[in-house]
Write a structure and sequence with these properties.
The protein has 119 residues and is an alpha+beta fold. Helices cover 39% and strands 21% of the residues. 34% of the residues are buried.
Length: 119
């Protein structure tokens, strides 16, 4: 039997927010988790130093899809310095708790934010 997911995680999985890509001049990055094979593509458009628009695509498990959705909601309006404070616990809280076997989803989001900030 697989993990039991919280209601908020299921909602983000079944009704993902901000799915897609943004055209340039948006910044786009792609990160992966070699252990599980999940891939996150994250694109963001900054305006006046803040995230104006953000989109994502995930190829992966239920938790990673939900985590990407929650990440984009969290990122809206954040400055680069606020993004630099991102911690996987933010996703854990946003989706109502990731099962132990799904904690990698928050780490994938962290890696995506870090990669975005390097652009």
């Amino acid at each position: 039997m697989g993990p039991v997911y919280p209601e908020r995680l299921i909602d983000h999985f079944q009704n993902p927010r901000n799915v897609g890509d943004l055209d340039p001049p948006a910044v786009a990055v792609e990160v992966s988790n070699p252990a599980c094979g999940d891939v996150l593509r994250l694109s963001a458009r900054f305006e006046n130093g803040r995230v104006r628009e953000v989109r994502y695509k995930v190829r992966g498990c239920t938790a990673s899809i939900a985590a990407g959705s929650a990440l984009t909601e969290w990122m809206q309006g954040k400055s680069r310095s606020e993004l630099a404070l991102f911690d996987p616990a933010i996703i854990d809280d946003a989706v109502g708790g990731l099962p132990a076997a799904s904690k990698h989803a928050g780490v994938l989001c962290r890696d995506g934010v870090k990669a975005l900030l390097r652009q």
